[in-house]
């Protein structure tokens, strides 16, 4: 059988210290975590705190440092400096106990094409110290996955489902998922995201690394944006969206002087066409409404930015840091 990152992480269940303070409140904690690949930076001075019982989004483009961070958390790489704890345990010193406690799906999940999904999961189950398939049959049914087909006969999407099931079937306290919905169709993505919500409702934690921003926006409680190996933002999904500029469209009964809006605080990108004024607004809604009141308004619409737009505000149009 081919062993990759995912196979390395299959061990028996942990004996965590329930009285450790980090174990009580924090699933992942990093302090000045840094990794250099020779002269090339992987991540630098990364400070994160992922709370137990939340779905935490970790987003950035390819090469930003997402996978490097995950491999440091799992002791698959050693940091240049700094430290990390996972479920209150030191990520390096207690790496075996950490691996017993989590479910992990790497960005590239290797499979033995000769095995069936059922055989693979039984193998992982035995390494974890139990003989049954745990929640695997239920998960497979929800995802529309046949566990008795040889994996060499599975499509890319169904192989990804196998990866999801092996990360979830033992009901781990912490899920670390690297691009988990890659290759899944939209309906299966919806089912999977609902499964993550259910894990959160049970008090379990999800660390979701992704560049699919729409799914992060739908399911995550908080989001960290990583840019060129450095933390660019860390906020709740709601606050991150709220602080970005909204698009406001104003329709009047007749043309108005748009310069009055352009002079307002927090207003930018003012455009006027006939009796329609469009602008972007960061704050100062009260001032906009008072200016609108000088005219006869027919219609008003406000569009809030998507997480995609928020993310791209940290990068220029080529995808490089802005």
Note down, in words, how this protein is organized.
This protein is an alpha/beta fold and 322 residues long. It has 2 domains: 5-240, P-loop containing nucleotide triphosphate hydrolases (Rossmann fold), CATH 3.40.50.300; 245-303, Alpha-Beta Plaits. Helices cover 32% and strands 29% of the residues. It contains 13 helices and 14 strands. It has helices at 5-8, 21-25, 66-73, 95-101, 117-128, 136-143, 156-168, 186-201, 213-219, 237-242, 259-262, 285-292, 307-312, and strands at 26-37, 40-51, 55-59, 81-86, 89-90, 102-105, 174-178, 205-210, 222-227, 230-236, 246-252, 267-273, 276-281, 297-303. The strands form 3 sheets. A 6-stranded mixed sheet has the order 6-7-8-3-9-10, sandwiched between helices. It has a 4-stranded antiparallel sheet with strand order 2-1-4-5. Strand 12 and strand 13 (276-281) form a beta hairpin. Helix 6 packs antiparallel against helix 7 (156-168).
Q: Topology of this protein?
A:
Blueprint: H1 5-8, H2 21-25, E1 26-37, E2 40-51, E3 55-59, H3 66-73, E4 81-86, E5 89-90, H4 95-101, E6 102-105, H5 117-128, H6 136-143, H7 156-168, E7 174-178, H8 186-201, E8 205-210, H9 213-219, E9 222-227, E10 230-236, H10 237-242, E11 246-252, H11 259-262, E12 267-273, E13 276-281, H12 285-292, E14 297-303, H13 307-312
Helix pairs in contact: 6-7
């Amino acid at each position: 059988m081919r062993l990759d990152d995912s196979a390395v992480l299959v061990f028996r269940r942990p004996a965590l210290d329930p009285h450790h303070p980090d174990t009580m409140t924090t699933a992942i904690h990093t302090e000045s975590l840094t990794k250099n690949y020779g002269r090339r930076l992987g991540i630098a001075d990364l400070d994160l705190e992922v709370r137990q019982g939340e779905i935490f989004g970790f987003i950035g483009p390819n090469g930003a440092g997402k996978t490097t961070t995950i491999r440091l958390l799992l002791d698959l790489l050693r940091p240049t400096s700094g430290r990390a704890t996972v479920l209150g345990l030191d990520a390096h010193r207690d790496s075996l106990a950490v691996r017993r406690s989590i479910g992990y799906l790497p960005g590239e999940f290797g499979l033995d094409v000769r095995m069936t999904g059922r055989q693979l999961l039984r193998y992982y189950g035995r390494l974890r110290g139990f003989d049954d398939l745990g929640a695997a049959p239920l998960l497979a049914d929800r995802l529309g996955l046949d566990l008795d087909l040889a994996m060499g006969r599975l499509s890319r999407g169904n192989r990804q489902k196998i990866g999801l099931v092996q990360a979830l079937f033992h009901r781990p306290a912490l899920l670390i998922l690297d691009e988990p919905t890659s290759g899944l169709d939209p309906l299966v993505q919806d089912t999977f995201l609902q499964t993550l919500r259910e894990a959160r409702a049970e008090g379990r934690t999800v660390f979701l690394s992704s560049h699919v921003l729409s799914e992060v926006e739908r399911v995550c409680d908080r989001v960290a944006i990583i840019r060129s190996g450095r933390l660019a933002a860390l906020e709740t999904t709601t606050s991150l969206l709220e602080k970005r500029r909204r698009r406001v469209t104003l329709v009047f009964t007749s043309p108005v002087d748009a310069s009055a809006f352009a002079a307002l605080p927090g207003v930018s990108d003012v455009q006027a066409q006939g009796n329609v004024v469009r602008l972007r607004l960061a704050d100062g809604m009260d001032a906009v409404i008072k200016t609108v009141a000088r005219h006869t308004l027919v219609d008003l619409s406000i569009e809030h930015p998507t997480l995609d737009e928020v993310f791209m505000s940290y990068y220029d149009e080529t995808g490089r840091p802005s």
